[in-house]
Amino acid sequence: QVQLQESGPGLVKPSQTLSLTCTVSGGSITTNYYYWSWVRQPPGKGLEWIGHIAYSGSTYYSPSLKSRTSISRDTSKKQFTLHLNSVTPEDTGMYYCARWAPIGGWTYDYWGQGTQVTVSS
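^ that's the sequence the OP posted. Answer follows.
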């Protein structure tokens, strides 16, 4: 059973960098052909894909966030980390890590419980 757990600060000041880490258990982040994703949900809005890092280490980002986003990984710790810089209050919301898998097409089959991030001075 794969489990994902987000960790990181719940409060970030405007213009700073938000860094969140997802720790994976019960599986490897280098196993073909899974993609390890970050998704967020602003208050009162739908889910927004931020980006993901592939089993190969390749990264892909939402065009609207690409200029401020990077995702890295530590395979020995089975962790992947989101860095979102120059945050504003519009970056406030629940942040989730998830696995995107080629199952029945493509689907998010495992999710972390989510972590609340508030951007405020």
